[in-house]
Design goal:
The chain is of the alpha+beta class. It has two helices and six strands; from the N terminus they run βββαβαββ. A hairpin with a 2-residue loop joins strand 2 and strand 3. The longest helix is centred in the middle third of the chain and has 19 residues. The protein is globular, with a radius of gyration of 14 Å. It starts with a strand and ends with a strand.
């Protein structure tokens, strides 16, 4: 069984996918980029600002699913340029301070809308 998650507090999907899917006790989010949910505009071309927006979008999706950032068990970070890793990591670390999730980070040649970072995650539902 799976349940679709959708919230107006995160950007609408721009293709045939959902913001997240709940299956069993897990929430699987789609990759989030630095789009503002209200305006649909991209965050400035700054890795720290984009990372902040991405994590806020993930948080909104998780809250709509019945979870939150503290329940995240795995993230995958896609970076346009690995030289942005330390700046992304600085912002990321503000949100995942206690028992941070497992994480992979990879450099990719191009991301949607030419953003600098995209992050997806797997979380458990809150009990």
């Amino acid at each position: 069984m799976k349940k679709v998650v959708h919230t107006k507090n995160a950007p609408n999907p721009v293709g045939p996918y959902n913001q997240a899917i709940i299956s069993g006790n897990f929430v699987f989010t789609a990759g989030q980029i630095a789009l503002h949910p209200e305006s649909g505009e991209l965050e400035d071309n700054d890795i720290k600002k984009q990372t902040e927006r991405v994590i806020k979008n993930i948080e909104a999706v998780l809250l709509a699913a019945g979870s939150d950032l503290a329940q995240v068990i795995k993230t995958t970070v896609f970076l346009k340029n690995m030289s942005d890793f330390s700046s992304m990591n600085e912002v990321y670390g503000k949100y995942f301070t206690i028992d941070p999730p497992a994480r992979s980070a990879v450099e990719v040649s191009r991301l949607p809308k030419d953003v600098l970072v995209e992050i997806e995650c797997i979380a458990v539902l809150k009990k």
